Amino acid sequence: MVKRLIQSEYLVLLLSAVYFAALAPFTPGFASTGNLANILSSMLPLLVVAMGQTFVLIAGGIDLSVTSTIALASVVGASVATGDQGILSGNSLATPGGILAMLLVGATVGSFNGAAITRFRMPPFIVTLTTMIFVSGFAVWLTQSKSIFNLPTTFTILGSNVWVALPLVAVATLVMHFALSRTLLGHWIYAIGHNKNAAEISGVPVRRVLLFTYIASGLCAAAASILYTGRLESASPVMGRNILLDLIGATVIGGTSLYGGKGKILWTVYGVLFLALIDNSLNLLNLSYFTIMMAKGAVIVMAATIDSVRNKLLNS
Amino acid sequence: MSSSPRILEFDSVEKSFFGVKVLKAVTFDLRTGTAIGLVGENGAGKSTLMNILGGIHTPDAGYIRMEGEPYAPRNPQDAARAGVAFIHQELNLFSNLTIAENIFITTFPRVAGLPMIARKTVRERARSLLDQVGLSVNPNTRVESLSAGERQLVEIAKALSLDARIIIFDEPTSSLTALETDRLFELISTLRARGISMIYISHALSDVMKLCDDIVVLRDGEVVGKSRTAETSTAKLISLMVGRSIDQLYPERTGRPAAERALSVRNLSQPGIVRNIAFDLHDQEILGISGLMGSGRSELARILFGLDPFETGEVLLWGENLPKPSPRQCVRMGMAFLTENRREEGLCMEASIAENMALVSLPNFANRGGYWIDHGRLSKSLTALRGAVRLTRSARLSQAVRTLSGGNQQKVVLAKWLLNRPRVFILDEPTRGIDVGAKYEVYSLINKLASDGAAVLIISSEIEELIGMCDQILVMRNGEIADTIRRPDFDRERILRGALKQSHTTRTSPVETARHDPESR
Amino acid sequence: MPHAQFMKRLLPIPISITLASLFVAMWTAGCGSNSPTTQEASGQGEKQLTVGVAFETLQTEYWVAGFEAIKEQLAKRNIKVLEAIANSDSNRQFEQIQTFVTRGVDGIIMVPKDAKTCIPSIRAANSAGIPIVLFNRPAGESDAKSVAVQADNFKLSKETVAFMIEQARKTGTKHKAMVIMGDLGDINAIGRRDGFDAAVKGNEDLIEVVSRVPSEWNQEKAQAGVVNALQAHPDISFIFTSSDFLFPSIVSAMKTAGKYKKIGEPGHVILGGFDGDATAYQMMKDGYLDATGVQDVYFEAEATVQALLDLRGGKDVPTLIQDPGFVIHQGNMDEMTPKMWGANIRK
Questions:
Q1: What does the radius of gyration of chain C's CA atoms come to, in whole angstroms?
Q2: Which residue ranges form the domains of chain C, and what is each CATH number?
Q3: How confident is the model at residue C35 (pLDDT cuts 50, 70, 90)?
Q4: pTM here?
Q5: How far away is chain A from the Cα of B293, in angstroms, using its nearest Cα?
């Protein structure tokens, strides 16, 4: 029974439900509609970045640069769209222009990562770590570490109103889910994650597929940046700096393997949900930031343990 | 010899897993200072028996006695303490550590009373152990720079460091060159003379015949044959193993090479790797390449498939020049490449059988434009395919490839290529590490491919296999083709001579020089 | 197969981890909810108020002192406190304020990350009808309504620098001056810089500003900047820093240059700061520091809590309540020390 449960791919979803049910009676406001909307609104941007990360992780890579991509996209997009001397200030194209600029930032950073990793065969960890440091420095330098405000409402509503963002993110989730599970590209991503050499010998265009995963991750980071920026109605060069743990944590809790070849978009959804629940409930219980960090760290280690136990069970 | 005492006795050992009896009343003895050959097909129960000996499993019934005393190890540490050591097929060394560190990984000599490693003692003891196994390499060399044969010697040195009295070899020669095999056999004789006993497990029956005093044949968990080596023959052993008599090891060829050239290679050179390679491979032809490890045979295959570059020369596929082939282009043009390294380059071990089988041909199952995979059509093809390669019936297509035996894994690799209907096959060691029955099936499959019109290039270190299968054999040495032999002139001696001449007197690879330099780390 | 046995031994580990962490979670949760219940029981029948206190960071002594002072004020009025520290992450701070709103607190006290990112948070409080007071950092202009309590950076630094100039004039010589500025994205830093400039204006005969070091509120940058400035102008004899928390860097740079001397010793550099932290107190006690502008944390904390209660009571509250602060120097040290927060934390 325990074995069946641990092996189930719905384990995390189930844990989320149990956790919610267990804490709801003791935690004031946990189950209120307003709070559920809060959970959703903190889930959505994280989910968007995590989905891109899932692609990269399944292909056997890692993208640490997403946090700084979020920051750079945020300030670049805002400097296009802002009413304070923005490039398209006051123009009706300010919002679409800003969004386009943000996605462009994401695609550029992703292409750079992908190119460095595939062309020069550098390890993803080093490449994306370096990119993270560079891009984050660039974002601060660009803005002289100032935040940018006065964004058009058409722009900020994407992040500030859950009911606008939800359908968009839901569609993106479905698209990415099917891209991974049903298309040629998806199968290739898994194969590369399992064994890059075997995939290459089998005629898989390994470089192109890897490049794609990093661009996808960059685009997802940029899309998440739209949500984060909208939510705070301002762009900041340090935006997203603290989400790396949540991000990797959520994907790992979901069950995506850091060694590649294993993972699903739906698992990542569960992982993000679980993490958001924990975060929110601990906040409601009035635990300090540091206690919450400790609790989250423990949960992620636990998830990794369960994952390795699960692998051993499947192997025996 | 016959009078030497028994060091180990298996008495009616039985074992079941999930209600299936995998060992039935296994009874035999090992005498001190002798080697016993344990042969049988995959799944015959050899590994289970050895796992019992190694303390990983406990028998359901029966006894093992060591020197007359009951022996019932509860874990691998117990077994090691009792002097039982294993030399595995997949070597268990840490390639990033040095030889000395590997040897003493569990029993580092300490500075008296301190939790510190006595470096000098480690070095000296490692030196003396390496001398005993005849390995003249600095103990501080990292294992990653050693050849497979040298690694094996390190494993044996490690066993000696634990005062092993019984050493179990599991397919020790499957990744060794002919020279290394000879060295290993010499060492085994020396160890025997010192009173160490061996259990030798191998599919290479000729090795077993050469090396062992007694041979025990297991089939379906039962001992079906037990005899002195002098009193049996390879043919007898095979028929005991498979349970029926096999008239020949290699199936009859039907068809002859056609006139059409499928793959032509002209003056192909890549400095330091291959030089002036030229040959034609015709439709319906099976062409063999023989040569020692490092002679450039596998490297040539990688160049032909576009995995490695070449500097000069031409590669033509059906008359079309491929100036810079890539694996992707080769796959598209109908080439297949089964690499010598099944685990690292052939299969996604953690992925399912179905995913592996589909990998090469996936684009053929994607809808035009949409890239949407047609899973219905795919699974129909896969079901047909598993029959064609005679994959074991007990396997589910959704099961991880890792769980299959070597023979079945190789069938999956073949199947993944067959699905793409290639016309040129490059097969590097197609039967490495698979048992006799499965070998025969692989050979039949290759024959069928050739008679159906495909051109096949086989690279193998088993000379008998090439002689049994090919229309023509190229012998490679130092990156060049040293000899070309047509079927009527096939001769084991001539092939060996071509492969060996001068090979270790004049040539020292840069790797070797670096390795013997004590300063290089 | 070997894994099967291995597993039997291993399986209890994750289970025990799970149980242990659940236990810890419940225990902490229990503590979190228990203590207020006991407080509630001791309440005098009237409904106890709950106030959420959200600080951007607790990384400097000043914020810790402010945090403690506010909690003390709330405790004095038997108000239950919910705490939240955002660790310099405005996104997290937004979520924390949302959580306060969800829990239906009676008021929110907040130190925002910056003037603008807090606006969605204030708006969330506004729409739930929860009064919100910003401690030490006012919000930028917007439709969101909040009250802020803040030190009068301009006035206080001007007074401090004016006192320093008075000391300078007593020496009878001209002085070359250096000012260490904060992060100019921070309104407090701008106020202090302007205060410095205003005090120097009209005294150009005495004070020549030769070096303006941008620190961006960063110790390393301050240190490097001061080292460079002292190299370029070895005769600097007048230094004002926009915050006391940079003193460790400044003092180390001065020591290297051999310029860290007590008041009265030859070669003493006239030294002034802002904040009134523990380092400054120690330096003053040891006779190195001439003056520092002290933010009256106790006044600010009380004003903050009072403003919050007034807002609840429907009273009119000005949108900006200013803390005049005071200049502490060698002359009034004994008298003012009890009001200097920095003197009270090093115990």
A1: 24
A2: 48-145 (3.40.50.2300), 153-294+328-345 (3.40.50.2300)
A3: very low
A4: 0.75
A5: 21
